[in-house]
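Q: Sequence in, structure out?
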Amino acid sequence: MSYPYQIASLEQYHADYKKSVDDPEGFWGSIAENFEWRKKHDKVLEWNFTEPKVEWFKGAKLNITENCIDRHLKTMADKPAIIWEPNNPEERVRIVTYARLHKRVCQVAQMLVNNGVKKGDRVCIYMGMVPELAYAILGCARIGAIHSVIFGGFSAQSIADRLYDAQAEFIITCDGAYRGAKDIPLKSVIDDALIGNRTVKKVFVYTRTRIPVSMLKGRDLWWEDEMEYAETQVEKDGVVSFPAVEMDAEDPLFILYTSGSTGKPKGVVHSSAGYMVWTNYTFVNVFQYQPGQVHFCTADIGWITGHSYIVYGPLSAGGTSLMFEGVPTYPDAGRFWDIVDRHKVNILYTAPTAIRSLMGFGLDPLKGKDLSSLKILGTVGEPINEEAWHWYDEHIGKKKCPIVDTWWQTENGGVLISNLAGITPSKPSWATLPMPGVQPILVDENGKEVTEKDEHGMLKGNLCIKAPWPSILRTTYGDHERCRINYFATYPNLYFTGDGALKDADGNYRITGRVDDVLNVSGHRIGTAEVENAINMHAGVVESAVVGYPHDIKGQGIYAYVIYGHMHGDAEHTKKDILQTVTRVIGAIAKPDKIQFVTGLPKTRSGKIMRRILRKIAEGEMTNLGDTSALLDPTVVEEIKNGKL
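A: Exactly. Output:
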């Protein structure tokens, strides 16, 4: 298999980029020819950013699983689609060929249909990183059910909120999951999330850890039993089949919840055709993927990176995707390098947080590990600092592997800005150039394009995008107005990313971080309002304010200023109680790194918290706090400064 749309030179990048902007319909219409359609599109693109309404490949009919699996069976049935590396390195590795993947996905589809799942139904998936998670996702897609994967680190309350928002009627989970030295009791968390739930009809439970679980008659079903029965239905005389349901190009494929600047998570909706084309196109081009290479994306499928670059991107390209159940430091800090060595990994795509964490262990974990198979390195989730970039380049890539520094978000579906490995120039800690089809613009607070350069010759502003690319989000589930307000209302006729950026004289972009009330902690977006709501649920808390601050490992840490009523016991014990509350309400990923007790918060006379001041203090900036004359009580600032942790 070759990729006729793979960019092979810098000149071709510039030519393709120009065509994608001058003639997007012609450009993407030709890319679409490389996929299998039940019916071709009537129109490539129709859009406006006012409603907003975006339709790609209008009128086309397809099923994404036929493009990810079926079309590869003639030539690659025995090739590995997924290599699964378990949490425990002593456990058996599983190699899932395209033929085996096809059979398992057909079984899941049959299992779901047997239990009343229909096209358009929402299926919540809360599983560990096992191949069955990929089967579940693709099984849903095969019958047109909308999957909503929830990361295994979220609490019962967070799951309950997402189940309610999606009105999900079906859940697929595991008894438990292994993650490093921890056993996570997934089914019991689901049970807690279902207290009071009247919508969920069936819960499918895959056996992974053999932790004791409660199984309710009529609701809870063992995955193994249902799959065994489904196998007898989909396989006849050695031939496996389950007809994929025909989907419209704009039918929803999945919902993925992401934090916003309000306390309620947003259910980002991605469509079938545009998402498929974009994840495939970016996978093939950013990583310069060659048939037969082993691609190791270390993300969890609970996040968009796992959806796009473990499942849909690699599989639609007929690639081999390595899926890892564990964590980079278990059983020791050499685990990633063991995996690269054992499976002869060619592409390693991971987060700057993981790189910084592994840097802290020094070079000993690298000893005796053969990393010579690596051809390309990548980073995702947050901007990578120069020190980590150079460590990654020198010690992992041996200065022979291009590093792609990819910038994109849940709402984007796939990479928007990145160098193309070995094709376009890289620049440490810069995302560099936009993908064909992506038209960035930097604007000031009033939405006016920034044209004046700073003292370093850079343009600096809020990062927006002028036109849609195929995998732009279509809506936020059940609340289109929220989608409009969040992404399209800040600056008319522009999609607002929520990030700030720099642009150099060569057109390269560097992401400078969030400009809204959303934190980026270890590549995970967490809304400040969401964390504040959780802290405020603790019995003794009067009020709180949360900001981000620079963190050596996570990139950004969470700093909480808390007004507390009557404290029982000492402050340290109370902090632990608050952290436990946040864990129960959201999950451990949202726990503040620092909690400072204060008697008041810097507020304007209208009651608005001046987060700018709190952010500067958290960052260690004590002198240049700007104008504080508008504060109701300026003395509170001195108290906060004096108590800084």
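Residues 98-114 form the longest helix (17 residues).
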